[in-house]
Amino acid sequence: MATTTDPAQTPSAGLAGRLRVPSRFPYRTIAMGTVGSTLLMIAALGAGGILIKDPVLGHGPLSWVRYGHGRMLANAVLYTGFGLVVWAWVRLGRYVLAGRIGSRPILVAAGCWMAPLLVSPPLFTRDVFSYLGQGAQLLYGLDPYANGPAELDVLPNVVQNVHPLWQTTPAPYGPLFLLISKGVVATTGDNMILGVILMRVVLLAGLAGTLWALPRLVKHLGGKLPVALWLAVASPMMVIHLFGGPHNDLMMLAFLTIGVLAALERKHVISVVLVTIGMLIKPTAAIALPFIVWMWANHLSGESKVRNFLRAGAASVGLFLPVFVAGTWLSLGSLNLGWWSGLKAPQLIANWLNIPTGIGEVFYNLVHLIVDVQVSPFVTVARAAGMLLLIGFGIRQWWLARGGGTEAVYRAGISLLAVAILMPPTLPWYLTWGFVLLSAFRWQPRHLALVVAVSVFVTLVYYPTGEQALYDWWFIAGVVLASLYSAASLLRPDPLGLIDAWRRPEKFLRD
Prior knowledge:
Elements: H1 15-18, H2 27-47, H3 68-97, H4 103-114, H5 127-139, H6 156-160, H7 164-167, H8 175-188, H9 192-221, H10 225-232, H11 236-243, H12 249-264, H13 268-281, H14 289-299, H15 305-332, H16 339-342, H17 355-368, H18 376-400, H19 405-422, H20 432-438, H21 445-460, H22 473-491, H23 498-510
Pfam families: MptA_B_family
Transmembrane segments: 30-52, 72-93, 105-124, 192-213, 225-244, 272-297, 317-340, 352-371, 377-396, 408-427, 447-463, 470-488
Family: Belongs to the MptA/B family.
């Protein structure tokens, strides 16, 4: 991955030299990513989140792509496509670092890379099937916060495609998102293919909102718009996970980013309302509310900071409660607060991608070498310690944000990242919560390289079917190497000299 350059690039020149080289529109890089995305879409028909009963390939002459060697071929094509997308993204990042392209090529690239995935089966997840199942529950008068989609006696295609883990598990999402899912199912019925496509189309509204907010956030937070768009919009986490998934985080992020922008622009009532609405889609947005209180307090006139904080806090609570109550009532037809208990459902997922869970598993394996014990006490204690650490870290970040302004936004962003890392479970797309806000700040190249490594790693640690690959250690070793190579490629094209090594024999023959 990321080992060659576009014709617009001077291979022998350093980064400073490339700053002086006029750039052409990176057609080849965009085309490479588009080819990769198209391969992802085609291969996902055999290796992605396929349906139990698929009307497209289920029993036709091409059904072989889902079994045996056919499935192996589909996986090979899919990972090839993934490699091309990452390669193109890293090349685009090098142009951004060199200051040779503006925002337009990045937006064109992201649009071209997402377009084939609009009609793709879900990639690296099956969550969208759960969305449709929970929306169907609400549509047919059932309480998605009391039981899972298995209680439905209608729409068999919707029910049977929900992952077994979530068949009997209450919904962990906000009531407003369930209302959106209800609308999608009311339109598409038992047609799962149309349901997935329409869900992606609806979630594009979230992407549009984030795109509207990012340029304005960059102006306030001191970053560079091409960098922000490259990080937040064109990255594999956005293209493949949030859109190709798809995931409702895409909608929540729109309300979060616009709400934070409103706070920076002293539109505090709008800010609290928007972030509260985002919370009604996915509760994670609530992490930003305490930081917004500081921002409001610092915009108030008056010498007493304590009084300003109390005024801002009281006003925020006064806005939050009616919006929360009205949003819940309009979404569910009642003030059903059962969705709070549903927030515990994701904790059923246990793997080492969540750092406290991983630490618990390490201690369990060490003790298990000597004594036959169960893993659950070790994981439970480690998760409890992780929660205490998260609470302490969050309180400290909130206190450091008391000056308001851009500092509060930064602290909110890293707090969102901390929640994604320390609070079980940690799922790959959760990292976008913090990255999207932080993308609007100024970044150092080495930090961007770290983001590349993380982006590639977290996208690959789940199989294309949505099942975790975290305990396939040889596979994970390959993922780590690919992630590190991608990161190095951002700072230096062909970091291992692979292209030069390939070309030398040809040069020798010519000589």
